[in-house]
From TrEMBL:
Its cofactor is [2Fe-2S] cluster. It comes from Pendulispora albinea. Residues 1-27 are annotated as: Disordered. The chain crosses the membrane at residues 54-74. This is Rieske 2Fe-2S domain-containing protein. Residues 1-11 have a biased composition (Basic and acidic residues). Gene3D superfamilies: Rieske [2Fe-2S] iron-sulphur domain. Keywords: 2Fe-2S, Disulfide bond, Iron, Iron-sulfur, Membrane, Metal-binding, Transmembrane, Transmembrane helix. The keyword Cell wall biogenesis/degradation does not apply. Residues 88-185 form the Rieske domain. It comes from the Bacteria. InterPro entries: Rieske_2Fe-2S, Rieske_2Fe-2S_sf, Rieske_Fe-S_prot, Rieske_Fe-S_prot_C.
Length: 193
């Protein structure tokens, strides 16, 4: 029998049986899990909660709290030191005629984005992940919208603004620059409104 089980058996022996509340499973105190011995229902048994166990619990919870704070601080530091967004050539002007759209990946190969050209002089690009639950939005060039088929969300194609349905905010905009005939992605603009 473990030390804790012995201690609880002794505690149970020293009490008047009428003072001991039956545990929900009906098993004797000696067979109960350790936590039930440390936090008993009966006040008389309460005096047997070992100070050492209580101190251990306090140390563990404090340690977990400190570790959590340290992890958050480290994450924040890493985020601040993160490298600037990459410059990636995503297309040439020839690849994207007026009225066309094109899928590319930015800033990582896992991030799908859309390059759109609604007018000769207007090139826009957005993350393809809907801001509701991340379904892929689909351009409807003739209607001037991006449609999310999952829950009928709509975004303005020229601005990426959420205009109907459940999406709570605009699509992240991919910043573009044109050099010669190259279309280059230079960053991601997250927008809350
Ligand atoms: S995931 Fe796009 S509207 Fe729900």
């Amino acid at each position: 029998m473990s030390d804790d089980a012995k201690r609880r058996a002794l505690a149970a022996e020293e009490l008047d049986p009428s003072e001991i509340t039956t545990s929900p499973d009906g098993e004797p105190l000696a067979l109960q899990p350790i936590w039930r011995g440390d936090f008993p229902i009966d006040a008389p048994v309460d005096q047997y909660v070992a100070r050492r166990n209580f101190a251990r619990l306090l140390v563990l919870t404090s340690g977990a709290f400190v570790a959590g704070q340290a992890w958050l601080a480290a994450k924040d530091l890493v985020r601040k030191r993160r490298a600037p967004p990459p410059r990636i050539t995503i297309a040439t002007l020839k690849d994207i005629p007026v009225g066309a759209s094109l899928v590319f990946h930015y800033p990582t190969p896992r991030d799908r984005c859309l390059l759109l050209r609604p007018e000769v002089k207007l090139l826009v690009a957005y993350s393809q992940a809907c801001t509701h639950l991340s379904c892929a939005v689909v351009p409807r060039m003739s209607e001037g919208v991006l449609h999310c088929p999952c829950h009928q969300g709509y975004f303005d194609l020229r601005t990426g603004q959420n205009i109907a349905g459940p999406p709570p905010r605009p699509l992240p905009r991919i910043l573009l620059t044109i050099e010669g005939t190259d279309v280059i992605a230079t960053g991601v603009e997250e927008r809350m409104v």
